[in-house]
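This is your field. Have a critical look at the following sequence-structure pair:

***
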Amino acid sequence: RWLLNCWMFLKQWYQRRVRGFMTSLDIKPPLNGDMDGDNIIGVTDTLTVRASQIRSEVIMWQPLLRSAVIKEHDYNVIAAYDTMSKEQQIERMRVDGLNIVKTLINLTISICNEKILQHVLVLVNDVLNDKENIKLFEEIEEANAAEKAANKSAPKGLSSWEPFLDLLNRPDEFIVNQSCLILAKVISCGSFRLDSKNLNWFINWQVSQLLQSNGYLHTILASQQLMLRVSEYRAPYYNSTCLDRMLNILSTRISFQLQYQMVFCFWLLSFRTTYCFKLLDFVKPTAQILRQAVKEKVIRIILQFYRNILTNHTDPRKAAELMIQGKVQVVMGQLIEKNWKDEDIKEDVEHVKKVLDEMLQDMSTFDSYLAEVKSGKLEWSPLHTNPAFWRENAQKLNQNDHEVLRMIRILLKDEQDPTTLAVCAHDVGEYVRHYPVGKYNVEKLGLKERVVCLLDNDDPKVKSAALLALQKLMLNNWEFMAKTNA
């Protein structure tokens, strides 16, 4: 036995050295992707990098056997399996997969040492990267259920998921996040479903981890991507504070990979009409991402999300208005000119553009103007420069307690974009030119003071627009006084 242990140690050491050499050549290990082989987690995520390091570490299993931490059967299985190459492990799983899975689960229960437990969890996750192996975990649950049905007084059997749920209480970050991903795969990628009590606890735990400062945020989102594919799990997510947390994170500067993962979750929820109401809150943030997006997969998932919202929402007009406010139709005009290798993107761009164009035609001219002001970004367009528009719609700026004028005042105070400031000043001038009595509203709401401040702006176009607006305001003062005296 001593010679056998020495031989196994040397073999294990050699294989780890080879793996370390491959890593030094930048030969990357397989990622912790979803069960269909698409990589949910980016190559730089913390879990993948740490798992690669742990996978190359040598574990001495013999001391655990001597101290009775693990049983002899489990020792024989893991000592042989852990020294195999990746190809040998795959072949061994085909022959003795159920036995290996049971051993790995037993080890997660019996081992307390964090370093060894990390290693075991990496092995479990590697097993689950092959979608065929999820059936082995299902077999364990089916056997457990059959034994319980045959004898209700029988002790509780081995669970394929409970040990990983328990590990979420551990202090080690890698252990809890690797367990989170493993648990998500076990309860989502096969036919087994978690009961509502434990499901709600798990979801609430995930929500508590949705923080921008969390280095394992990729992993939490990856587990949610897996679980939201299951229709039974969507309602608990929607009813939790998960979307609120995501909205807070999405409004900050995050990587394109995190953007993709979050929008992927929104897209999965957007297939159901009931969930589209809250998802409207994400239209503007995703529109901002779309305007700056470079990665095709981010563009594709946002377009698919928009397509679902426009199709499944009970009031697609409201969804379209938010997209128009977010300048999505402008982006569609740019995207449709590109040559996409992915035909799905081309089709989605054409569909979203067509729907928004139709909605714009149905909306009144003033509705379009209102949507643009609400977007917070104004551009020189016929809506602003056409005298006919102002003759017909100047008085409408007084509606809803001067709602539009109040929004323009906020833009004049807070906005930094020169074009938006210039257009706002221009609109104030056109308002008083075509509605002379409106000068009182301009002064009462503080708009005149804001326009005067623009005279000190560094941009010459902003200064010019402000000066013209003030000239129109003064001209109307004299015209109004002349008419009054007459």
Remarks:
- Residues 58 and 285 are 46 Å apart (CA to CA).
- Confidence is low (pLDDT under 50) at residues 18-44, 480-486.
